[in-house]
Amino acid sequence: VRFKGVDEMTREEDGRSGAAEIKRVLVIGAGAAGLAAAVELAREGHDVVVYEKSSEIGGVWNYTPDADSDPLSIDPQRKRVHSSMYASLRTNLPRELMGFLDFPFLAKEGRDKRRYPGYEEVNSYLRDFAEHHDLLSLIEFGVEVENVRLKKAGNGNSASESRDLKWIVRSNRFGKFNHEPQTKEDVFDAVVICNGHYAEPKLINIPGVESWPGFQMHSHNYRVPESFQDKIIVIIGNANSGGDISKELAEVAKEVHVCGRRWPETAQIKQQGNIWLHPLVERACEDGTVKFQDGKSTRADVILHCTGYLYSFPFLDTEGVVTVKDGRIDPLYKHVFVPAFGPTLSFVGLPQKIVPFPLFQAQSKWISKLLSGKVKLPSESTMMSDLKQFYDELEANGITTYNTHTMFKRDQFVYCDWILEQCGAQPLDSWREAIYFSAHANKGTSTNYRDDWKDQDLLDTATKSLVELSE
Ligand code: FAD
C-alpha cells in the first residue's frame, strides 16, 4: 500500500483549525473534474468561477464528428478538437461505479439505460449534475485560459508563505460576434486545474515511417469506421481504445493487425477472423510494408495509433517549479498539490487507471477544505520527503516514471479513502471496490463484457444503496 506511513505523519501535523476562510478560486475546465471541483468549492462557501474554453460542459464526453485538422495531431498550428470520443463509444466502466459519490448515475426513463451506456448518456448525466447543483451560473463559457502565473510579492520574489500567494490568470474570451478574442487578466487566491488529459496525443516512434506511403492517424481523431472499408489496418496499442476500435474496424476492413507490448491471456482482443495480434512494429518501409517484432509483416494502408495521451498544461508558468516530463508532473504531493504553493494550486483528475468521477470529487473536497483552512497540509519539507519516499517506492517496484500517476490494483481505493479521511468524510462503500474488480475480471474473460456479466448480486447491492442515496 503506497500511502502507508504518511497517514500518521499528516495527522500529527494536521491540527484542524475551526476558522473557515473564503477564497476566490478559479477552476480551469468544465469537464467532470471541473464540475466536481466547482460543487465542492461552492459547498465550502468559496467564491468560485469556472473558465471553460468551449461552449458546453462535459469535456471529453461532448462527441463531435469534427477532428483535429492534422489526423496525427502533430502540427502545433492545427485546428484542435478537445473530445476523443468515437461515435460508437460505450463506457468501459459500469455506470453504478462511474457516478459521483453523492449523485448516483442511475438509469432514467426515456434515456440510455444500459449498464455501460453510450457517451451521450454520460454527457446527460453530467448536465443533470451541473443543473442539480446550479453550477451553470458559475461557468464562463468561451473563455480559454492562456497563462497562469504567480503574483510576485513586493520584493520581486514569490511570497514564501503559501497562504499569501495569489495567481494572475490571463484569458482569451471568444464572444459570439467578435472575431478576435478579448484578453483579460484577473487575480485569484487559488487555481484548480481541470483541463483533462485526453486531448494531446502521444505517438510512438516507428523507424522508417517518414517514407512509408500509407495514412496515419491517432485514435484521438477516429470517429467512424466507414472510410476504412476494405483497408489493411495496423493498430498500435491494445488498451481500451485499441481494443474497441480494432473490433469495430474488423467489421469493415480487410485485415486488422493489432500490436501490443504485452498480450495477457485476459486481453480483450482475440486473434480471430481478420484480426491478427502482434508485438510492436519494428519498422515501416517505403514499399508500404509494416514489419512486426515477431518477424511477420504485412502490406498496410493505415497505421492507427491508439497509444494514449500526454499531460499538457500549456498555460501554466511556474518559472520552472513544476515540470512535466516522461508522464510525470513534478513535484506533486498526492498527485494534487505542488508543495511550494500549498493548496493555492491544485490539479484534479491526474491519476490514471482509476474510476474517475468519485476520485475527482474526493480530491475536490480535500482542496476545498484546505483552502478554507479547515484542514491543513503538512509542511513543504514533509510533503517533499513524502514525495521522495513515493518515487523511491515506484523505483523499487520497477514502476516507470511514465506510470507515476498510474494507480495499480487497490491503490485508487486506498488513495480515495485516505483523502476522504483527511476531509472527515465517509470512506467509499465497499461494493465499489468489489464491482471494480469483478468488472475488470469480466472484461478480461468475456468478449461482450458490456452486455454480459456475472456480478448481478453486487450490482443489486450497489443499485439498492444508490437508490436509497437518491431518495
Ligand atoms: P475533460 O473531460 O477533458 O475536461 C476538460 C475541460 O477543460 C474541457 O471541457 C476543455 O474544453 C477545458 N479546457 C481545457 N483547457 C482549457 C483552457 N486552457 N481554458 C479553459 N478551458 C479549458 N471515464 C470513465 O469514467 N468511464 C469511461 O468509460 C471512460 N471512457 C473514456 C473513453 C475515452 C475515449 C476517453 C478519452 C476517456 C474516457 N474516460 C472514461 C475518462 C474521462 O476522460 C474521464 O471520465 C473524465 O471525463 C475526464 O474529465 P476531466 O474534467 O478531467 O477532463
What about the largest sheet? 5 strands, parallel
Mean pLDDT across every amino acid position? 93
Helical fraction equals 25-40%
H-E order: HEHEHHEEEEEEEHEEEEEEEEEEHHHHH
Strand order of the largest sheet: 3-2-1-7-19
Please give the count of helices.
10
Write the layout of secondary structure elements.
Blueprint: H1 6-13, E1 24-28, H2 32-43, E2 47-52, H3 95-98, H4 119-132, E3 139-141, E4 143-150, E5 167-173, E6 182-188, E7 190-193, E8 215-218, E9 232-236, H5 240-250, E10 255-259, E11 275-278, E12 281-284, E13 289-292, E14 297-299, E15 302-305, E16 316-317, E17 323-325, E18 328-330, E19 345-347, H6 356-371, H7 380-396, H8 411-422, H9 430-445, H10 456-470
Parallel strand pairs: 1-2, 1-7, 2-3, 4-16, 7-19, 8-15, 9-10, 9-15, 10-11
Antiparallel strand pairs: 4-5, 5-6, 12-13, 13-14, 17-18
Helix pairs in contact: 2-6, 6-8, 9-10
What does this structure look like?
Its EC number is 1.-.-.-. Belongs to the FMO family. InterPro entries: FAD/NAD-bd_sf, Flavin_mOase, Flavin_mOase-like, FMO-like. It is an enzyme of class 1 (oxidoreductase). Its cofactor is FAD. By secondary structure, this protein is α/β, with parallel strands linked by helices. The model is unreliable at 1-18 and 156-160 (pLDDT under 50). It has ten helices and 19 strands. It has helices at 6-13, 32-43, 95-98, 119-132, 240-250, 356-371, 380-396, 411-422, 430-445, 456-470, and strands spanning 24-28, 47-52, 139-141, 143-150, 167-173, 182-188, 190-193, 215-218, 232-236, 255-259, 275-278, 281-284, 289-292, 297-299, 302-305, 316-317, 323-325, 328-330, 345-347. 27% of the residues lie in helices and 18% in strands. It is globular. The protein has a five-stranded parallel sheet, covered by helices on one side. The protein binds flavin-adenine dinucleotide.
